[in-house]
Structures are given as C-alpha cells and as structure tokens.
Write a structure and sequence with these properties.
globular, 7 strands, Transposase_28, 5 helices, alpha+beta, Transposase (putative) gypsy type domain-containing protein, two-stranded antiparallel ribbon
C-alpha cells in the first residue's frame, strides 16, 4: 500500500493511504461483480429494507462496472461496495450499529474484509444481547470470538475461543459470494 507521511495542524504524523491495492490477495483481485446492470440490482429488493428505521439515511444500490472490484472505493468516498449476502442472508442494516462499527474499528477492517460467517457471529451476538436486555460489549464479544487473517490482505474470519462456543457457522460453505457485491451510495 502506498503511504505518504504528512502532519496535521498540530504537527502529529498522519498517514494518507493511496489507491495502491497491491495488498489485496487471491481471487478477490480478479472477480468482478455479478451485478452489472440495473435489472440484476433490482432483484436485491427495495433499499429501504436494508436501512434502520429512523436513521434518515437514503441508500441506493447501483450496478458495478466490469472493472470494479470489491476493495475499490470512490475517490471522495462517494460510494463503497458491499457483499449482498451480508444484508440479504444475515440481516445487517445500514447504518451499521455502534457494536458493528466497534468490531470493524477494533479489527481495522472495511465491511467487505469481513467474511459473511463473521458477520453472522456479530449479528447473532448483537441479537442475543438485545434479547437478554444487555448492551453488546466488544470486550465480551472478543472474549468469545477471535479474529483470524486480520493483517493478511484476505477475508477476516472469526472463530470461537476454545471452550467458549456460542454459535455454529451460519453456512459451512459460502460459494460465489465474492462476486456478489453492489455499489452502495448514500443520498
């Protein structure tokens, strides 16, 4: 990844990340989206289904270009990509919850760097905590789950800490999800 050293107004170093994607590993570099036209995007459903009530966010799902890759981003963050299985199968909604943002921040990962089973663990934990009337805490979550692959340029997975299994895998084998991503914009 290209990094240029700069300083903020207080003279503290900041890192500016360039658009060098050499850190991305494996087939993710080669796969274009299955959602290349408006008709395919319409099959996902109405975007309001994937937005939390009262958030005031208006999303649009747009078709991808054949040259788009899931790890690309808009120059000014005007769009990002998202695997459709995360909201279609697992029920994740936008904006991400405080807990989901906390996990992403703790792992220093973009949403598309998280394997769908890891999203299912996050969502399941959040639902369980809501059911018992407790706040989903990162400390508790990471005492039950451990992340693998965080700094390898591939997908990050979560596994149960030995002796603390809370959930089984959502799906034992996810096939073809890596090409099932759409471009997401917010109005």
């Amino acid at each position: 990844m290209t990094r240029d050293r700069e300083t903020d107004e207080n003279g503290k170093p900041i890192v500016v990340v360039g658009l060098d994607y050499s850190w991305v590993k494996g087939e993710v570099r080669e796969l274009s989206s299955w959602f290349l036209d408006s008709d395919s995007v319409e099959q996902i459903g109405e975007t309001t289904m994937w937005v939390r009530e009262g958030s005031g966010i208006k999303l649009r799902f747009l078709p991808c270009k054949d040259s788009d890759r899931v790890y690309h981003r808009g120059e000014g963050w005007e769009y990002f990509f998202m695997y459709t299985t995360v909201f279609l199968d697992i029920g994740v909604k936008f904006p991400f919850s405080e807990f989901e943002c906390g996990v992403l921040s703790q792992l220093k990962c973009a949403p598309t760097q998280i394997h769908p089973n890891a999203w299912a663990f996050m969502r399941g934990f959040e639902i369980l905590m809501e059911y018992i009337g407790a706040k989903p805490l990162l400390e508790v979550f990471f005492s039950i789950f451990q992340a693998k692959g965080v700094r390898k340029g591939g997908l990050v997975t979560l596994n149960s800490v030995q002796g603390k299994t809370l959930f089984g895998l959502y799906k034992h084998s996810y096939k073809d999800f890596k090409a099932m991503f759409v471009k997401v914009t917010c109005n």
